[in-house]
Amino acid sequence: MVEVVPLSSKPLIYDIDYADLEHLIKDWQQPxxxxxxxxxxxxxxxWRSPEEFTNLPVSLRNQLANTFRFVSLEPIQVLHSxxxxxxxxxxxxxxxxxxxxxxxxxxxxxxxCISTQxxxxxxxxxxxxxxxxxxxNLTSGEIVEQVIYYANLLHKEGESVTNIVLMGxxxxxxxxxxxxxxxxxxxxxxxxxxxxxxxxxxxxxxxPMIRRFAAEQRxxxxxxxxxxxxxxxxTSMLPVNKKYPLDELMAACRDYVAQTRRRITFEWALxxxxxxxxxxxxxxxxxxxxxxxxxxVIPLNPTKKYTGKGSTRERAMAFKAELERNGIPCTIRIRxxxxxxxxxxxxxxxxDQNSPPxxxxx
Length: 362
Prior knowledge:
This protein has eleven helices and twelve strands. It has helices at 18-27, 33-43, 58-67, 128-132, 140-156, 176-187, 207-215, 231-237, 246-260, 278-288, 313-325, and strands at 74-80, 86-92, 98-105, 110-113, 117-119, 134-137, 163-166, 199-203, 221-225, 264-270, 293-299, 330-332. Helix 1 packs across helix 2 (33-43) and helix 7 packs parallel to helix 9.
């Protein structure tokens, strides 16, 4: 009888890449084709336990069971929006921390909004995740597992994931290595084979990571959370602007476009009478002049600790019109899942009342 290794001491199978798995299979003196069988089971069939790998011999299934955890995320709450187009899941992590992730259904797309951290250290004042403070980085496998969870649900409905936005809880560039490793695993041709351009990473503007990302020449879409066109206002909303002010951020963005020839998306949460005037749109147009970019605006989603309100449709349309008059492409995004707190900036968990506020950690 095989002795079962305690669950807590096992690594998560989604934390290993294909080459690591190849080496392991070789060490176990198994035929090399077993690597691809296991990988396809994980990333094409979305099998969540060794028992499901019926194409493997029992001895190999036992080795997998005694070497790896196949599940680390425990779904403890699932909420559906009133229109049934958005699903938000609250997951417990093995150490008691928690994250949220979202599935959004559009006419032709099935988009996942995935978290890279539990909480966030950036402290953006209007963001519920920023309001709860930083708990910890996720491993690459914990990022991947969110995708696998939803991919499995969609697979059972005869559907599949089409797009992934790393815009959930956390700052992806504050957890750069794990985020990129997760994308590489989901991009692997023997598994989900999701093209790089199906991923979008959103950052508040960590300049060293933007420059590193540009140097790596990745085809992943880049989005910058901007929200203000001058330093005073941006710093009042996004504390990171103290360290990485707008002139330095825009220089990094221009260098990114010059190196990659790829367009940047700038995200702009429209806050009534704060950053939604025609004059502000004009100032933003000057800031972005000549840059290959697109502006996504969305009226601010409500959060408990921020009193600002989302702009009216009339002010949003006037803001968009002024940008377009100045040659800046702009889209007003559809708000999704607001009734279940699943919209942009709304993901959060109940904060531990005994834990002190977290400082900005960059």
